[in-house]
Write a structure and sequence with these properties.
With 385 residues, the chain is mostly beta strands. Among the domains are: 41 residues, no CATH class; 65 residues, no CATH class; 144 residues. The protein contains two helices and 28 strands. A four-stranded antiparallel beta sheet has the order 20-21-16-23, with helices on one face.
């Protein structure tokens, strides 16, 4: 029979062995962030592990968010842009589980780019899929695509990742930091053939009723026209009443609406209108003749939507078809479709920053004309040789 002292030593030994057994089951008791399994290996809770390999270990490290990698090595199947911690564009803080992104990247997983200088306060930071059309959507002619270019979808790997600046009107450059200067014709530019009359740009507008039927359903309804200047300013006309029965009055209304845009942004334009019996549509030709619009201009946009009470300008809208000139992907030939707005004649005039006869002061947006030239866009000669 054991004495009291011997029994006490035995009890202490057993308790010490139990403590040693508990502490040796799983490292650091899985740090409170996992479950100790029967093989003495921690099964970590979500977003916990150890080190770069994210092994379970003692579950003491936080794992940072994953997103598609900007750059990575291919796997054995040749696949790129797999999911990576911090998108391979940041360092994971193991204590907080937050990505510390490199310069030029942000997001919880560094999954998108920042915009340079935050667009300098003169633009918006947009994703690549929202930046298809730098001018007007109908300046773009799809080749071999069966999609409406206004809704052209972008689905490559950098969708919702790459971003850039879309500058406000009169601002430019990659960070929208520079004021844009007026554009104008180079007064010393030489035309190829001086024996023919000077040509101005002509844009053709087609008003074709949906279903290619008689246009009587368009009569009396209102629409508007939007013009975008070379400085990316957009101006929309007052409502214009569609009138197939009096084309002379119809063309006159269009001409006045364009000439009455603010700031005389269009300072000279002529309009012709005619009815095409074969295709049942009204064709309107707009010729830009003013000194400010002599060179190539962005295509006009016909605002054919309905714009009711509280909307400006208030429009009834036109039920017209919008068609595009496309190419057969197999034969390379043009299909029998045309845009509702097309350029049908190029201008002999050109359009250069400061008329190519001065330098733009990008801090003010004013042209510093070379000696012998003056005017907002340096297209007026002050000396003759």
């Amino acid at each position: 029979m054991l004495g009291p002292e011997r029994f006490g030593y035995t009890r202490l030994f057993v308790l010490a062995g139990c403590v040693a057994l508990v502490s040796g089951a799983c490292d650091n008791n899985c740090s409170g962030h996992g479950t100790c399994m029967t093989d003495d290996v921690c099964q970590c809770y979500d977003n916990w592990g150890v080190g770069l390999s994210h092994d379970s270990g003692d579950c003491s490290d936080r794992i940072c968010p994953f997103e598609l990698a900007w750059v990575d090595t291919p796997d054995k199947t040749g696949s790129f842009h797999k999911y990576a911690e911090c998108s391979n564009r940041g360092i994971c803080n193991r204590e907080s589980g937050e990505c510390q992104c490199f310069d030029g990247y942000d997001g919880k997983a560094c999954q998108r780019t920042t915009c340079p200088n935050d667009c300098s306060g003169h633009g918006t930071c947009e994703y690549i899929e929202d930046m298809h059309f730098a001018a007007t959507w109908n300046d773009f002619t799809p080749r071999g695509f069966n999609e409406d270019p206004k809704t052209f979808s972008y689905t490559n790997w950098d969708h919702r990742k790459i971003r850039g600046c879309v500058c406000d009107a009169t601002y430019g450059d990659v960070d929208c930091s520079k004021r844009m200067c007026p554009y104008g014709n180079d007064v010393l530019d030489v035309r190829d053939n001086l024996l023919v009359s000077t040509k101005y740009q002509v844009q053709e507008l087609h008003f074709l009723a949906t279903g290619n039927t008689e246009d009587t359903d368009l009569n009396g309804r209102t629409f508007a026209i939007t013009f975008k200047s070379r400085l990316n300013e957009t101006f929309t006309t007052i409502p214009i009443v569609f009138d197939k029965d009096d084309l002379s009055d119809f063309r006159h209304d269009i001409q006045l609406a364009l000439l009455n845009l603010p700031n005389r942004v269009i300072d000279g334009v002529s309009v012709a209108a005619m009815w095409d019996d074969t295709s049942n549509y009204v064709k309107v030709n707009v010729t830009f003749t003013g000194p400010s619009v002599q060179g190539p201009q962005h295509l006009l946009v016909v605002e054919d939507y309905e714009c009711g009470a509280g909307c400006t300008p208030r429009l009834d809208g036109l039920n017209v078809e919008t068609r595009y000139l496309t190419a057969d992907p197999w034969w390379g030939t043009d299909l029998q479709r045309s845009s509702n707005v097309t350029e049908v004649r190029l201008a002999d005039y050109n359009s250069y920053e400061c008329g190519r006869r001065g330098k733009c002061d990008y801090s003010t947006g004013l042209c510093q004309c070379f000696t012998g030239y003056t005017g907002d866009n340096c297209n007026t000669l002050t000396t003759f040789t």
